[in-house]
Design brief:
The protein is mostly helical. It contains 25 helices and two strands. This is Purine-cytosine permease.
């Protein structure tokens, strides 16, 4: 039917020689997913447990990295609690929408997110996106490993080093991502609840210190927009992997159902935990034990100090908090494996789970090296990573809504791996690159301030999105006229 011969062969587990290997066959019998970037045929899109996508996003974000992101408003950008929380709420309402919407494409097309992107950026042009996305996925995994390692070490009262903690967290994440879709969904469905209880207990124990925050300086437009760009870097970055986790759902599912499950699963934990992080870091100077735990920007130590009043049980809760990042890292590793195969198509013959091992080998040493400069790494990374997804979202959404008329049937899935039958990608890459000509002067972060941003604050994300949308329409129209196909 819709599959090309290449796709049909790649979907057959007996086609590629690696799948004939006895070890691989044994892993598959144990439920390890072998499928990589190959589209899931409609007959194999059979999952009807749609609520899993809600649990997935909740587990992805109920962790100490989300908490840490909220601390940046007061700690880096000088905002008070009210202004930090309002920024967190409104920027996330905007930035959680695109990844939730893109998640609805998975059931309709059966393709991974970066493969779908070939229908606007082209077979070779999407390689540029994959490189940037791989950097982002590795960066988020490194930050999570550092946080998890710090929290685990703090729970051990010095008997465990940050390095050992980082390795433990990475290995647990490796196991989950190695197994693939089924185990990943099972883990994400179960892991968020005890972590949420731990945050609730920490709020119950330390909440009295949060009741009377010190007066803050009036918020400036520059501070709000700069913090907003950082928040966007956290939330909208999920857009580049949204469909990776929904392409096994039956194609008949109502798109609004997937959207609302995803949107609420993203928005609620992000807003609550980021606001909690902002409130706690503002209270740190007034609580000596918190200040001691937080020394050097140690978020794990801060949370462990908050749980000290419950004694030995608090150490157990600190361990749970350290493990909270595993769900985020495992999902990032999972998408990272798929990006690797899209980045270098020849790697499609290598089973997906092999890349999880490679990702772990990369992330562990980077986490160990960056562990003692976490706050700088967090602020710089989130400040940088949010700009390209804004441009990406504008382009792929216009491609879908305008040029393919919001109709999944206008994606010829037969040509997913045929460069000459896909768009050239020049229009998409041209719009993205050209948009940064104006976006870069609009960036204001701790590491760079553009000429325009000195007056306006950081509007780089908004400009990248708007300019990409404006430029892509004529560029893509011209590309279609020249190629004589969509």
């Amino acid at each position: 039917m819709w599959q090309s011969e290449t796709v049909r062969q790649s979907l057959n587990s007996h086609t590629f020689s690696p799948y004939k290997d006895r070890w691989t066959k044994r892993l598959m019998r144990y439920g390890v997913e072998s499928r990589g970037v190959q589209p899931v045929p409609e007959a194999q899109r059979t999952d009807t447990q749609f609520i899993k996508v809600f649990y997935f996003w909740v587990s992805f974000n109920v962790n100490i990295l989300t908490f840490s992101t909220g601390t940046l408003g007061p700690a880096i950008f000088g905002l008070g609690l009210r202004d930090s929380c309002l920024s967190i709420l409104f920027f996330n309402i905007i930035c959680c929408g695109p990844p939730a919407y893109l998640a609805t494409w998975g059931p309709k097309l059966g393709m991974r997110q970066m493969v779908i992107s070939r229908y606007s950026f082209g077979y070779y042009g999407v390689i540029v996106l994959c490189i940037v996305n791989l950097i982002g996925l590795i960066g988020f995994s490194v930050l999570n490993c550092i946080l998890g390692g710090q929290a685990l070490a703090s729970a051990g009262n010095g008997s465990l080093s940050w390095t050992v903690g980082i390795v433990v967290i990475a290995v647990i994440s490796l196991f989950v991502s190695f197994c693939g879709y089924r185990v990943l969904n099972w883990y994400e469905k179960a892991s968020w609840f005890p972590v949420l209880l731990t945050f609730i207990i920490s709020l119950g124990v330390g909440g009295k210190h949060l009741l009377h925050p010190p007066p803050a300086e009036p918020a400036t437009v520059v501070g709000v927009l700069s913090f907003g760009a950082t928040l966007a870097g956290f939330s909208i970055s999920f857009s580049s992997l949204s469909a990776d986790f929904t392409n096994y759902y039956v194609s008949s599912v109502n798109g609004w159902r997937i959207f609302w499950y995803s949107f609420i699963g993203l928005l609620i934990p992000i807003v609550i935990l980021e606001c909690f992080g902002a409130a706690v870091v503002i209270a740190v100077p007034s609580v000596p034990s918190w200040e001691q735990g937080y020394a050097g920007g140690n978020i794990g130590g801060l949370l462990a100090a908050m749980l000290q009043p419950v004694g030995g049980f608090g150490k157990f809760l600190a361990v749970l908090l350290s493990l909270s990042v595993a769900g985020n890292i495992a999902a990032s590793f999972y998408s990272l494996t798929l990006n690797s195969q899209t980045f270098i198509p020849a790697l499609i013959i290598i089973p997906r789970y092999v890349f999880s091992v490679v990702a772990t080998a990369i992330v562990i040493p980077l986490s160990i090296v960056g562990a003692h400069t976490f706050y700088d790494a967090l602020a710089n990374f989130l400040g940088l990573i949010g700009y390209w997804p804004g441009s990406y979202v504008a382009i792929v959404m216009l491609e879908h809504l305008v040029f393919r008329h919001n109709n999944p049937g206008e994606y010829d899935i037969n040509v997913w791996d045929m460069p000459r039958k896909l768009p050239s990608g020049i229009a998409a890459l041209g719009a993205m690159v050209a948009s940064f000509g104006l976006a870069v002067p609009c960036i204001r972060q701790v590491w760079f301030t553009g000429a325009i941003a000195k007056t306006t604050g950081d509007i780089g994300f908004e400009v990248a999105f708007g300019m990409s949308a404006i430029l892509y329409l004529p560029f893509r129209w011209l590309e279609i006229r020249i190629q004589k196909r969509v």
